[in-house]
Specification:
Blueprint: H1 2-11, H2 13-38, E1 40-46, H3 58-65, H4 76-81, E2 85-90, E3 93-99, H5 112-129, E4 134-135, E5 141-144, H6 149-170, H7 172-184, H8 192-199, H9 205-221, E6 226-227, E7 234-235, H10 238-249, H11 251-268, H12 277-294, H13 301-327, H14 332-371, H15 383-388
Antiparallel strand pairs: 1-3, 1-4, 1-5, 2-3, 6-7
Helix pairs in contact: 1-7, 2-6, 3-5, 9-10, 10-11, 10-12, 10-14, 11-12, 12-13, 13-14
């Protein structure tokens, strides 16, 4: 069993690498989210004056902000309106405590640059309240209620990898035999033949002509959409032909077509904002996902649903929202609000209808693809065989 387990680890090396990267990213993301809501800056000082929260006015903070153009990024109005900056007296000294997120740009709350900006701003605020104040901390301010990005990411990486290794160990015999069987048929993503076949899709005139035709249908579909009945939400048919290209020719052409279609679509149907290559990468990974789920695989609703789940939730909701936040210089809080209240509901509403439509479309066109030898008969589910089993 252990012999097969270690061989399985080598066979699954790409998946293991993905699990490790994904787990590390989740840990990093978790750390940033936690620190966004919990982390605070604390500055302690002694003063002979009688100070209170009434001294922390918008006028006072604006005067400090005006002293340095680098302070312009600090969101003082939001901070005051949310009561996230306050002064208290304990142990014979004053403390000004404030949430660290108001000093940060997008996902940079742990950077030294932000802490230096906050330190300078709070130091100026204290001296504005009392020019004779003496500071208690050696580094002027300290950060509290925060967790480290690297330790959290490494812990997440360890947990994710460990759980996957346990899964491999428990199912070593079954998974190893399945991989060997698939490799003999060149249907496993761990097979070199699988990737060679996908990359060779651009080598024949027939394939190039078919890709060009389906690509043209993709671009045409960008101009049309189907109303869903939910506010102004609509379903576009672009993803149907996009998935079809990836299903026939594999993840490599799907990745390339994703980039080309997004770039060309931007110039043919220009949106309001400027071009951002990040969205082209999201489209590319969508094509890659369709290829992994459909290329040389059985056509099933499970694969359709799983592909749309990855595209809708991971690519559109998570990475799409992060990219949107970076583009418009949103802080973490605003980005999360955008993600949870706009992107997530929209993509959840679309998930089942898009999966069903994709499954119906592929099932309907599969006999034609088999006839023209774009699809193998083994990819079609034989209902009679299923019933006999």
């Amino acid at each position: 069993m252990f012999k097969k387990f270690f061989k399985l680890i080598w066979k699954k090396k790409i998946t293991i690498l993905f699990i490790m990267i994904f787990s590390f990213t989740i840990g990093s993301f978790t750390s940033e989210i936690y620190n966004h809501f919990r982390a605070e800056y604390d500055i302690a000082f002694k003063s002979e004056k009688q100070l209170s929260n009434d001294n922390l006015t918008l006028e006072t903070l604006e005067k400090v902000q005006a002293t340095n153009e680098k302070f312009s990024a600090i969101k003082i109005e939001k901070m005051l309106n949310s009561n996230d900056i306050y002064l208290k007296f304990k142990n014979d000294e004053y403390h000004i405590e404030t949430k660290s997120r108001y000093y940060a740009d997008f996902f940079s709350s742990k950077s030294q640059k932000v802490k230096t900006r906050a330190e300078a701003f709070l130091q100026g605020l204290v001296l504005k309240l009392d020019e004779n104040a003496t500071f208690s901390y050696e580094s002027i301010i300290i950060e509290t209620n925060s967790i480290g990005l690297l330790p959290t990411s490494l812990i997440s990486l360890g947990i994710g990898s460990l759980l996957y290794f346990i899964y491999l160990l428990i199912n070593a015999n079954r998974l190893y035999e399945s991989i060997i069987e698939n490799e003999s048929q060149s249907t496993s993503i761990f097979s070199i033949t699988y990737w060679k076949d996908s990359l060779n899709s651009f080598k024949t005139i027939k394939n190039i002509s078919t890709i060009a035709l389906l690509f043209a249908l993709m671009i045409i579909c960008k101009a049309f959409s189907i109303p869903t009945g939910f506010a102004n939400l609509k379903i576009s048919l672009v993803y149907l032909f996009f998935a079809l290209i990836s299903m026939i020719f594999g993840p490599a052409p799907g990745f390339i077509i994703g980039i080309i279609s997004d770039v060309l679509g931007f110039f043919v149907f220009p949106p309001d904002g400027a071009f951002n290559f990040g969205y082209s990468l999201i489209a590319a990974f969508a094509g890659f996902t369709y290829g992994i789920c459909f290329y040389k695989q059985k056509i099933s609703f499970t694969n359709c649903f799983f592909s749309r789940l990855i595209v809708n939730i991971i690519l559109n909701v998570i990475f799409g929202s992060i990219l949107y936040g970076i583009t418009f210089n949103y802080d973490v809080h605003t980005t999360i609000v955008y993600m949870v209240y706009y992107e997530l509901p929209k993509n959840l509403i679309f998930l089942i209808p898009q999966s069903l439509l994709l499954y119906i479309f592929i099932k309907a066109i599969s006999p034609i693809l088999v006839r023209f030898r774009y699809l193998d008969k083994s990819q079609l589910i034989n209902k009679n065989k299923t019933k006999m089993q």
